Amino acid sequence: MVNFQKKYIITGAPGTGKTTLINLLKDTFPCMDEVSRKVIIDEQKNNRDGMPWSNIKRFTNLVFKKTKQELLNTDTRICDRSLLDLEAYLTVENKIVPKYLHNFPYLKTYHKTVFFAPTWFDIYCQDAQRLQEFDYCLKLEKALLEQYKKKGFKIIMLPKSSPIKRKQLILDSIL
């Protein structure tokens, strides 16, 4: 990929304020919206089962393909989640991680610094694309942290504070 710019990642379990933060950052940097949510919405709209709680294998394949396409956007600086999140979801579900994820060049694609939104009961809410119970989110959070550390990423934990303060921490870290 010519002139490929590594992307920063904001990750964490569902309902931790990542999308709110991404939307705030869009006035400063081009950001990539969460692909998982787009896939879930499309699957629900078309009465298909490619969701993490229904058919995680189909979900993983769909998110992988769409994310790879979106990563080619050379303007994007920050991503709402990364492909490594799929490995965490599969781990929590005791599923085999496909070779295409194991072999993905994470550190060539993403900056080594990852911003992690911790599970936060006070802001968590379910919606049509976020059906997971809060306890599941705690398990996923643990798996996410393990996956990112295992792959050699440096994790910066975002504070449980306002989106504006979180945005400023990110800007102070990458500018």
UniProtKB/TrEMBL annotation:
It holds the Pfam family AAA_28. SUPFAM superfamilies: P-loop containing nucleoside triphosphate hydrolases. Gene3D superfamilies: P-loop containing nucleotide triphosphate hydrolases. InterPro entries: NadR/Ttd14_AAA_dom, P-loop_NTPase. Residues 7-162 form the NadR/Ttd14 AAA domain. This is NadR/Ttd14 AAA domain-containing protein. It comes from Polaribacter butkevichii.
